[in-house]
């Protein structure tokens, strides 16, 4: 059995890139490979999607060497959906093939480009079993779940991607980062009804229901949508990070979230700075400012100033992490004096500089 296979000696980090067909998984793998390589990370991309015809990235392992979708469809008389499920079940039954391929790259950071069929992440168990085996081989993966951001412009579709994202999170059982992909095209089919942070942080969904009720077609489905939204809110797990693969800032946000989710940022694979460590530890990546940046760049329709909209809240303009001693005491503007780590007489403090619209 698989458990008796030789195990790679060290922990191997990486990403399982999932999401519906056309959401941008292959493009993301190519962009992330390039982005991480420039930062000095040795990246290996594995194509696990038998439906990928053209592979734009440098691929170290390709499922097509094991099983081809066209052969399965022709040979077994299956359609594309049944064919894909068969391919993943075939991979599950031949995991020794996968291990023998992966072992050659065990000093690399992995990106797995996965098939897009939603059933594979909500019903079928093959992908889940493959992931469980990868975990036994010491892979520490983050699921990076991409969904097309233009769904935000249609409230009914947004509820449906919330449901898909939640059920994928529960089924895949990995550290998970949800992405709104192609954020540069967010308004290509319509305008956003709310500010972008409403969609990225999945704030009070009752506003979405009210908005949906204005459409006569959905008026009759209010109770159904209300119940669906309650499930999302009860779990309180789904949020999104905006991404345009050509925008380095958004790529950096995604990388940080992924590294934090699987613990890569706490490992010894890369040179660490105290700031990066503390930033990950205290969660000082301010999602709101991230969404504001993306909104300013990519959302045209909302004329209201985002800062005006957020009046009455505190905003963190900048923060600084330093070691405070008796000679270099804590400045007055520290908001969170308890947020430090005490080591005898030296305290690592985070100094916030902020402003309020209250
Ligand atoms: N404008 C824009 N297009 C993107 C982005 N990411 C992917 N795409 C496009 O979306 C389409 C589908 O992408 P692909 O990677 O093949 O999706 P997959 O089926 O999930 O692997 C391609 O035409 C990509 O060029 C993005 O961030 N911005
Ligand atoms: Mg693809």
Descriptive account of the structure:
With about 350 residues, this protein is α/β, with parallel strands linked by helices. It folds into 2 domains: about 300 residues, Rossmann fold, CATH 3.40.50.300; about 50 residues, no CATH class. Helix content is about 40%, strand content about 20%. α2 crosses α3 and α3 packs parallel to α6. About 5% of the residues have low confidence. It binds guanosine-5'-diphosphate (GDP) and magnesium ion. Pfam families: ATP_bind_1. Small GTPase required for proper localization of RNA polymerase II and III (RNAPII and RNAPIII). May act at an RNAP assembly step prior to nuclear import. This is GPN-loop GTPase 2. Heterodimers with GPN1 or GPN3. Binds to RNA polymerase II (RNAPII).
Which descriptors apply to this entry?
single chain; 358 residues; alpha/beta; Rossmann fold; 2 domains; 18% strand; binds guanosine-5'-diphosphate; hydrolase; GTP-binding; Gpn2; GTP binding; Gpn
* CATH second-level architecture of the largest domain: 3-Layer(aba) Sandwich
- CATH class identity of the largest domain: Alpha Beta
Quaternary structure type: single chain
H/E element sequence:
EHEEHHHEHHEHEHHHHEHHHHEEE
CATH superfamily of the largest domain: P-loop containing nucleotide triphosphate hydrolases
Radius of gyration: 22 Å
GO molecular function: GTP binding; GTPase activity
Protein name: GPN-loop GTPase 2
Keywords: GTP-binding, Hydrolase, Nucleotide-binding
Family: Belongs to the GPN-loop GTPase family.
């Amino acid at each position: 059995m698989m458990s008796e296979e030789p195990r790679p000696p060290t922990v191997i980090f990486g990403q399982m890139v999932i999401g519906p067909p056309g959401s941008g998984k292959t493009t993301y793998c190519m962009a992330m490979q390039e982005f991480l390589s420039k930062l000095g990370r040795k990246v290996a991309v594995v194509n696990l999607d038998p439906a990928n015809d053209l592979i734009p990235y440098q691929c170290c392992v390709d499922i097509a060497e094991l099983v081809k979708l066209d052969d399965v469809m022709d040979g077994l008389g299956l359609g594309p959906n049944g064919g894909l499920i068969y391919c993943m079940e075939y991979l599950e039954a031949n995991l020794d093939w996968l291990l023998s391929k992966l072992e050659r790259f065990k000093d690399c950071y992995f990106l797995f480009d996965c098939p897009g069929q939603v059933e594979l992440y909500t019903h079928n168990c093959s992908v889940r079993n493959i992931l469980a085996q990868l975990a036994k081989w010491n892979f520490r993966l983050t699921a990076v779940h991409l969904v097309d951001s233009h769904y935000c412009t249609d409230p009914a579709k947004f509820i449906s991607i919330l449901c898909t994202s939640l059920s994928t999170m529960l089924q895949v059982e990995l550290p998970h980062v949800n992405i709104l992909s192609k954020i540069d095209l967010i308004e290509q089919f319509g305008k956003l009804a709310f500010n972008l942070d409403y969609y990225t942080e999945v704030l009070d969904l009752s506003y979405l229901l009210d908005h949906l009720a204005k459409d006569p077609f959905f008026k009759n489905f209010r109770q159904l949508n209300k119940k669906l939204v309650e499930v999302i809110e009860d779990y309180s797990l789904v949020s999104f990070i905006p991404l345009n693969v050509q925008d380095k800032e958004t790529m950096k946000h995604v990388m940080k979230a992924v590294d934090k989710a699987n613990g890569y940022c706490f490992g010894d694979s890369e040179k660490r700075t105290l700031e990066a460590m503390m930033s990950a530890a205290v969660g000082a990546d301010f999602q709101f400012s991230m969404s504001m940046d993306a909104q300013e760049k990519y959302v045209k329709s909302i004329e209201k100033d985002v800062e005006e909209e957020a009046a009455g809240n505190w905003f963190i303009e900048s923060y600084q992490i330093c070691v405070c001693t008796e000679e270099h005491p804590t400045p007055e503007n520290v908001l969170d004096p308890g947020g430090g780590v005490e080591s005898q007489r030296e305290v690592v403090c985070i100094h916030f500089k902020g402003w309020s619209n209250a």
